Protein 1
Amino acid sequence: MSRLWDTPLVVYRDDRADPEDLGGHMGFERQVKRRQLKERRKAANKAAKEIKALMDAMPGGCSVCGTAFTPRETPEQLDNWKIQATTKHATLTCDKCAGGPDASPVT
């Protein structure tokens, strides 16, 4: 006579589930897609962090003469100023210091 507690108790989450497959209810294709999505999301977050760090390190004005960089007040600065970005820092140069077409010579 077998006792009730000697028989293993198996609870299935779904009647359609395979009794041999007790773990991993997610299909393989779905797992791959979720992993790829997670990797893409992680790479995008890393890139956004790097861009934010560069923007935070960007100077507030011209690196040569010190003229303030205010693109919200004067949007033409975005077209006229020269921005050089490296992996470590960014350099801003106003149109006068960069030698634009209507630039006055820097002394």
Protein 2
Amino acid sequence: MPYDENLVQRIREKLGEMPGLVEKKMLGAVGFMLHGNLACGVNKDALIVRVGPENDQAALARPHTRRFNIRGLSLLCHCRQNNPISLCGLEQ
């Protein structure tokens, strides 16, 4: 399944022209790099977000959220499951 282009577009609109932000396609997904570090992205129909260890437990307590591990980096994945995405203010 390819990534959700509508979700990618919503992220582009939300982030705008942020200094240091680069969009990269990788491994069938799209990542948004901030100063060379992955900040968020889209894999299939899921929003992948790096929230930092201080926000980890609060974010995991949200509905439809789970860990997403890629190359040893632990991120949070919000699985849409026909629900609006509210983890990063990307409500539909």
Protein 3
Amino acid sequence: MQVTLPDNLIEEMSQYIALDNKSEALATIVQEWVKYQKSLARNQQHIKRSNLNQKSRPIGLAKDKFQVPTSFFDPLPDEVLADFEGR
């Protein structure tokens, strides 16, 4: 069985491996892994519940509520464009 763990959990566990008492280290690693799996399960249940509760919204709810100004389509100033491009 292959187990995938997040990097921060692996780093946290590596400190226990350095302990002299290997059985204590293994027990701690297993406890951390179980906590991680439980948190994953809770998150997945929450996502499933929130997806079930969401109804698709009809298209055009904000029609005629606002208008996009024509300046929206003007080129961006150089300093703003530079920020987007990471210059």
